[in-house]
Please model this.
Amino acid sequence: MKYTKLLTFIGLALSLNSQAALIDLAGQGYVTYGDFNSYSLPIAGINVSSAPGQIFELVVVATGTNGNPVNTNFSGMDNAYSTPSGSSDGNFFSTGLASDPSQVSSFFGDNNATWDTSLTALEAYLAGEAMVFFFNNNNLNGANLQSLAGWAQVKVTDNTGAEIGVFDFTNNNGAYGLVSEGGGGTFFGDPADYLSDGSGPIIGDNAGTDYVLSGGPICIDTDTTPPTPVSCNSPLADDGPINHNLGANDAAYAIVAPELNFLLKGLFDSGSSLDDFTMSIDLRLGCDPGFGSAGDEICTGAVSGFGKNINNGYEQLFIASATFESPNTPIPEPGTLLLLSGSLLLLWRHKLIS
Model:
């Protein structure tokens, strides 16, 4: 059974210096993909600059930029993975296939196939606040060339390798398309409705896949609060299409996993040794070879209209903070709030992954 949980965080920090929150997402619409809520920054009218000079103090998981300091993170976590810098570097990126990045110093829990951080380092970075991921979509701008496919899984493990929690950013075997055009994802969905089994993505095809479509143009109905994504052919479409292929210097999406943040807060407050816990990210972008080759229609989207290839490079994922709220206010089950003992940690693990 899965339990719904509420998080309310105020003034989320950007870095070890506990700066003000990067953006305010309160009241903004989002689309739920598995365990994650994805906020459209252009629909929200929010600009998040992501040039190297803007994000070098943040935690960068993956980037196409070369050189320090933008791809050098804090002690106790991996530096940034290197994503393709152009089509000649390949049409697909996976942390499981790329070279594992170096670290400022070695730490327990570092794995070769994922981006990793000790919870000691992550707690110091977040400084008591919650976490949000930001993503750049930097494909070519021609019609079907704008979109690319993405999937991610975040795991929290203990010093035995046991999984405390597993969280997927997934299309949940839905149609590969925009949420406004019948694709996967649920507008104002509930992450508590999804439970990861810990496996990798279902590749499938355009009719059903775990890969999320990123970067497509969206039309919206502005008569609702917040605006609702609708088909561009709908009479309700008041604005759009709104571009999400914003390039290297502007993030397109803010992505939040409420249950992951809840778990992290519980562990941070538990009094346990955080060196014994690791957060790992398995990130995959572009047209998975399981779909076909870069020139195949399922990857180019020349007929279907939505491509999957990385065709320009410099996509990046980084971690910062935001002020946000949930439209629901459920009360956590007794015993899940504090995680003050080893027995409660085992209870928490059972609730999340059994």
